[in-house]
Amino acid sequence: MTMPPSETKGYGHAEAVQTYRIRPATMADSSAIRKIRNAAVRESLAIWTNIEQDSAGTEAWLAPMVQRGTALVAHVSGKPQDVVGFAVAGTWHSYEGYARTVENSIYLNPAAQGHGLGSRLLAALIEASREAGDRTMIALIEAGNMASIHLHERYGFSTVGTIPQAGEKLGQLLDLTIMSRSLH
């Protein structure tokens, strides 16, 4: 996948370019993706569930996005065990009328954060979703996650609205910010 030069350079984060690469995910990456996703389930407010995925659950969730080319991984060496982050765009809603609208998710290992890698993954994911024929990308973000909100704003997402007390996790009531952008 070709990225524009500004995205390849990691927006001035030279160490991110030297250390991390982005490529389409394969099913061989499912174990590494599951580890990163399950850590987010346990340790963050980003995924509003307390139920971690097992191998079969990860594979079932990941397979459609790998097949359509909207699953990406960031890695050190290209080997599945060196995956440090991932980005996916998958079905937003099961009704066929929403077929061209996808929801994105981006997760990084803590050690890979702060190097511009989330930005590079989002830029590459937007391009992959365009290539897959998607029309609109949605981001559902815990309203207190200003880093994610600002990241999405930098890539042309607009806040559509915020649903107060839409969820609950770790004993906290959570507001949900909904953002979207056209992919055309």
Describe the structure.
The protein is α+β, with helices and mostly antiparallel strands and 184 residues long. It has six helices and seven strands. The chain has helices at 5-8, 14-19, 30-43, 55-68, 117-131, 146-154, and strands at 21-24, 71-75, 83-91, 101-108, 136-142, 158-169, 172-182. A seven-stranded mixed beta sheet has the order 1-2-3-4-5-7-6, sandwiched between helices. β6 and β7 form a beta hairpin. α3 (30-43) crosses α4 (55-68). The radius of gyration is 16 Å and the shape is globular. It starts with a helix and ends with a strand. Residues 1-18 have low confidence and may be disordered.
C-alpha Rg (nearest Å):
16 Å
Could you estimate the helical fraction of the residues in percent? Answer: 25-40%
Query: Which regions are unreliable across 5 or more consecutive residues at pLDDT < 50?
Result: 1-18
Report the biggest beta sheet as strand number plus sense, adding barrel if it closes: 7 strands, mixed
Strand order of the largest sheet: 1-2-3-4-5-7-6
How much of the residues is beta strand, in percent? Answer: 25-35%
Mean pLDDT: 89
Oligomer: single chain
- Please provide the ordered H/E string of secondary-structure elements: HHEHHEEEHEHEE
Class from secondary-structure proportions: alpha+beta
**Total DSSP E strands:** 7
Shape label? globular
